[in-house]
């Protein structure tokens, strides 16, 4: 069995056992954290931090979590809504006047957060993703693909620029700067949107699925695509996600770096009524706002049924999202539970059940804890 590092409560033994099984099945490396009432009951990691399997995954290893980053950006937006600085029912153009071009004057802030704005595709070059001004100008000039608010289509890369530019117009700060100052810093979370070079030695690159190389791209739209697969008109390759340009850029829908501990810690805010470790990030009302359904039905891009709240996917009483390659976060306010899984090992999205297996293992523990 794989060598599991870290610590865990005996009631949650199924979680590290499940992680060990994933490594034994061939995964390169990964980490899982489970927080209850804002405190860790599982914080474990295993495997290797490089494709050659020469460097062990360490306690402070960090990895790209791709679209799990959306939950961090959404939390920032919820903070601004809580403070009365951002109105989810306001037209986006109130904050970003140029956005009203090409028939978008009636797009609301809540449409950006719920993938219903009609701007799901990134149609520029990959290199433009690293240029905030160029990327947001491109999106401001685009026409929506459907009447905003009437349908949903997963805004895999575009959502972060759209929400992030509204935030920047309000605060004068990038999403990464706001997140660091208002969320990660106060909580002590090792999560970054726009990664500085000082963190490079801790990064584990993403490993393509077995049989694929670094030209492997995000899955095309369709029923075989996973909810987390960042489909886009311009494909993103694994080599793009592993580049220094990607690390340094602020792509607030997809370029966050962290470990399982940091992801679970931050999203415990939603699980615990807005306060974790004595630090209040959101009001209880702000947390409930995230769970208010904005859309329920088939997603035009993913080709599958979805439920979207304000910036989060909704799954029964829980909320969260996944990332290309397998990362996942799940927060259940009813249980005051947050679960995060991060990995450097991609699998075929259509056959990747790792996150669900770990959630089920954690739920076994929570039943024992509450018994």
Summarize the topology.
Layout: E1 5-8, H1 14-24, E2 29-36, E3 39-47, E4 63-64, H2 69-82, H3 109-113, H4 132-140, H5 158-171, H6 175-187, E5 192-193, H7 238-241, H8 244-248, E6 256-258, H9 260-271, E7 275-276, E8 279-280, H10 284-290, E9 295-299, E10 304-308, E11 313-315, E12 318-322, E13 328-332, E14 337-343, H11 354-370
Antiparallel strand pairs: 1-3, 2-3, 2-14, 4-6, 5-6, 7-8, 9-10, 11-12, 12-13, 13-14
Helix pairs in contact: 1-11, 2-5, 2-10, 4-5
Q: What attributes characterize this protein structure?
A:
alpha+beta; 7-stranded antiparallel sheet; 3-stranded antiparallel sheet; 371 residues
Describe this structure in words.
- By secondary structure, this protein is of the alpha+beta class.
- It has eleven helices and 14 strands.
- Helix 4 (132-140) crosses helix 5.
- The model is unreliable at 220-232 (pLDDT under 50).
């Amino acid at each position: 069995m794989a060598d599991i590092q870290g610590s865990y409560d005996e009631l949650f033994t199924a979680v590290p056992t499940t992680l060990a099984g994933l490594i034994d099945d061939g995964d390169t490396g990964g980490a899982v954290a489970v927080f209850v009432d804002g405190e860790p009951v599982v914080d474990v990691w295993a495997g290797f931090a490089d494709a050659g399997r020469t460097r062990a995954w360490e306690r402070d290893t960090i990895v790209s979590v791709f679209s799990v980053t959306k939950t961090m950006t959404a939390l920032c937006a919820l903070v601004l809504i809580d403070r009365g600085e951002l109105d989810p029912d306001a037209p986006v153009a109130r904050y970003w006047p140029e956005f009203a071009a090409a028939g978008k004057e009636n797009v609301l802030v809540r449409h950006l957060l719920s993938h219903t704005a009609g701007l799901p595709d990134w149609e520029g070059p990959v290199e433009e993703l690293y240029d905030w001004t160029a990327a947001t100008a491109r999106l401001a000039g685009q026409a929506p693909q459907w009447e905003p608010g009437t349908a949903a289509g997963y805004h895999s890369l575009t959502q972060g620029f759209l929400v992030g530019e509204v935030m920047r117009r309000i605060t004068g700060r990038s999403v990464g700067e706001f997140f660091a100052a208002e969320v990660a810093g106060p909580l002590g979370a090792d999560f970054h949107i726009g990664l500085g070079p000082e963190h490079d030695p801790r990064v584990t690159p993403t490993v393509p699925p077995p049989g694929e190389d670094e030209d492997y791209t995000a899955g095309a739209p369709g029923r075989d695509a996973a909810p987390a697969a960042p489909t886009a008109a311009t494909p993103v390759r694994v080599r793009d996600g592993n580049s220094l340009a990607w690390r340094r850029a602020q792509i607030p829908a997809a370029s966050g770096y962290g470990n399982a501990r940091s992801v679970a810690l931050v999203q415990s805010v939603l699980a615990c009524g807005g306060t974790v470790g004595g630090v209040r990030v959101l009001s209880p009302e702000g947390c409930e706002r995230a769970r208010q359904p904005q859309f329920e039905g088939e997603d035009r891009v993913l080709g599958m049924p979805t439920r979207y709240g304000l910036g989060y996917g909704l799954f029964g009483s829980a909320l969260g999202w996944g990332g290309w390659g397998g990362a996942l976060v799940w927060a259940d306010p009813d249980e005051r539970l947050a679960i995060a899984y991060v990995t450097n090992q991609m699998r075929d999205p259509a056959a990747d059940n790792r996150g669900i297996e770990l959630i089920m293992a954690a739920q076994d523990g929570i039943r024992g804890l509450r018994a």
